[in-house]
Amino acid sequence: MTVGLSLSSVLHMQEWSYLRGGLSTLDRDYGIFNKIHHDIGTHVVHHLLPQIPHYHLEEATAAVKPVMGPYYRCFRPRAHSR
Fold this sequence. Notes:
The chain has helices spanning 7-15, 18-23, 33-36, 43-48, 57-68. The chain is an all-alpha fold.
């Protein structure tokens, strides 16, 4: 099996950074699974500040949202129309 990289994918990787990767994540609500899986819905803070323990991620997310402003991203499902 061979793996090839195009010039555009190599250039894209050169532009990538740890911060850009963390900012590309988004939070989402997984309902009851949030607590079962250590607050998996708090991806943004987890990827920007991985040293924060999972049991402080909700509190950290609440503190970081106002600071991040428009850079904070959260998945909001669209309402289904019937």
